[in-house]
Amino acid sequence: MSSIHPYPSYPLQQGRDTGYAKWPPIVERVEKLGYVAARDQPFYSHDIGRSSELGGRIYYLNGDTMCNDAGVSSNTYQVVPDRKKPTEALYLSTDCHGFVAPLIDKNEEETQYLSLPENKTKRIAFWCFGGIVEISPGLGWVWYQKTVIDELDGSLDLVGVGLARVSQDKNGLAGQLSSVRMPGLMFQVSEPLFGSFSTLVDGDTVYLWGQMGPDIFLARVPKANCQHRHMYEYWNGSKYVPQLAEAVPVLQDYQQGQFFRSEMFGADLPWLFIGCTRWADSHVVIGAAARLEGPWDTHAIHLATGIRDRVNYQYCMYPHPWATNRTKGKLLVTWCDKWPGGVIAAKIHFATVGTTHWGGITLEGYSNRVINTAISKALEICQGNGLTSDELINPHRLSIRGIDQRGVELAVDMIRNSIAIAEKEEMDATVAEAPRPGFGERLFTKILRHACG
Predict the structure, then answer these.
(1) Triad 207, 212, 213: Cα angle to 5°
(2) Which residues have a Cβ under 8 Å from the Cβ of 371 and sit 6 or more positions away?
(3) For residue 431, with 0-12 CB atoms within 10 Å meaning exposed, 13-18 middle and 19 or more buried, which class applies?
(4) Burial class (CB within 10 angstroms; exposed 0-12, middle 13-18, buried 19+) of 118
């Protein structure tokens, strides 16, 4: 058997595969988990429920929160104490009357505006549909949509998008947030409302989606320059340019949603979208793309229903990648039913196909040490049959070049045998995290015996 360069660590997630869930998506079932709420706090009807991570903690960002007799808070947040319990979330800034302080609050000018007699029926809302973008541990930005609401006739006057710096309060309750608004607005109502639809950070760049009418546009800005409007660039269909007038839509007719990165549907479709349309049809829509800029292939996958409100349409569909099991095709999503309802969580189970590269074998639940040992030895055997490591990592290249598949099939057998061996050793999740002394060597020996037998 020929020798190879050492593979001391080869985590499975670094391999390229065709995905664990089928595309186009097939939903096997939807498991409704109930409202996002805290057991020991009053239930406040609210909407949005877009989650973000900051300083290692998970937060739900909410819209109008009905604090019972204490009034309405236009935007609140809840912290998730345990990621394994995504429906349990706590308010951290409630006063003695039960009012939850908003994350984004009015400034002096806005307070004076509301004090005028002609504005006594109005309130100003700051809705954070786009979530928080973390730029350093515990520090981030949030783009908020500013709207003036007349409670008398229900009219909404959209003003534009502002920007606020959000940070964790090191001196307050664990995970408590505070914000500082930047002066003025980042985008006017006559422009796409970048950052108020969806945001994400990829490396040193922040990407922002914004609506204008039925169209959704895409912009980007260096992570270190989010507060500088002149640093923004806009997607024109082929490249990013500094001229907003050249921007073209990347999607149309969606009301809310979130773009995120995941290989749930394979390495060829790493960009996903979950949202809802402008048509108030209560459908959860999923999209996938090879590039963040699109084009997007979208499918309606579920007709959402309410719990307390079963009459009106459901809205504010959002994914929660932090509570998603990619390898088993399980995606956590939320939507909202109207007052007296709230944010409803559900787990969507997609039909899975395993992985082409690794022969459809699921290695989840075994330690990296076990997986790395099996795959390293499998790679060595494959290379002993004339395949290079580059060809092994890229199955598409194997197909294109017409390489003999015997080596790949043998590698698959090796991984299958390693799992069988691990099962015989009765390795559960706990043992897998701390293999017994010498287990890796024994596994090496047994795999080699299988290969040569």
Answers:
(1) 140
(2) 11, 12, 363
(3) middle
(4) exposed
By C-alpha distance, which of 398, 411, 420, 401 is closest to 359? 411
- In this prediction, residue 416 carries a pLDDT of 52
Length of the chain: 453
pLDDT at 171: 64
Structure tokens at 189: 């109502």
Token pair for 253: 């007719």
Low-confidence ranges of the chain (pLDDT < 50): 1-19, 354-368, 387, 389-408, 423-453
DSSP state of 208: E
How far is CA 405 from each of CA 146, 423, 449, rounded to the nearest angstrom?
59, 27, 21
Helix %, strand %, coil % of the chain (to 5): 20, 35, 40
pLDDT of residue 184: 96
267 CB-near residues (< 8 Å, 6+ apart): 16, 17, 18, 19
201 vs 195: CA distance, rounded Å: 12
User: Would you state the pLDDT for residue 418?
Assistant: 54
- pLDDT of amino acid 381: 54
Q: Which helix (DSSP H) or strand (DSSP E) does residue 416 occupy? A: helix 406-424
Cα–Cα distances (Å) from 293 to 112, 232, 246, 249, 250, in that order, read 42, 16, 15, 10, 7
Say how far apart CA 50 and CA 200 lie, in whole Å. 13
What are the beta bridge partners of residue 254? 277
Angstrom distance (rounded) from CA 95 to CA 114: 22
Helix (H, G, I), strand (E, B) or coil at 366: coil
